[in-house]
Amino acid sequence: MTFQPTPVATSALEPVQAATVARCNALLGTPLWDYVPEDQEYPYVTVGEATETPHNVHGRFGRRVRQTLHVWDKGRHGFGPAMQIVAELTQLFDHRETDVDPLINGHRIQAIRLFDSRPMRDPDPLVRHVPVTFEWITEQEPL
After folding, report:
1. Which of 1, 64, 67, 70 lies at 20 to 30 Å from 25 by C-alpha?
2. Burial level of 59, CB count in 10 A (0-12/13-18/19+)?
3. How many Å apart are CA 33 and CA 43, to the nearest integer?
4. CATH number at 13-140
5. Smallest Cα–Cα separation from 105: which of 16, 34, 8?
6. β-strand 32-33 against 44-54: which pairing, if any?
7. Separation between Cα atoms, residue 29 and residue 32, nearest integer Å
């Protein structure tokens, strides 16, 4: 008797982050950093946390990845400039799954949606920080 190999789920974290960084580097008008140089001027965006949960359907593996980007600004002008960057990020990603390469390292993008944005003050009273999270739904391509 022969058995079919058991399918194995693979992570979509790295492909989603790579696609996020590539799209920001190509189209975002603000610098994007993973590690911010000490002399970097404001505003800028940093790659933040990500979470991944299963999103399996009909015998197929899927993933729900929430990728956070952090918008940073400094000055006495309130949240306005930081929120403009959030708006630009939203235009780049929210409902834009057809504008991103549909196949990212073995995962097909089903949807990209704005999950949330959270304007907050930093301990430095001049710094404004806005984490913005996008939720990516992917389906794993058959191996």
Report:
1. 64
2. exposed
3. 11
4. 3.30.2000.30
5. 16
6. parallel
7. 9
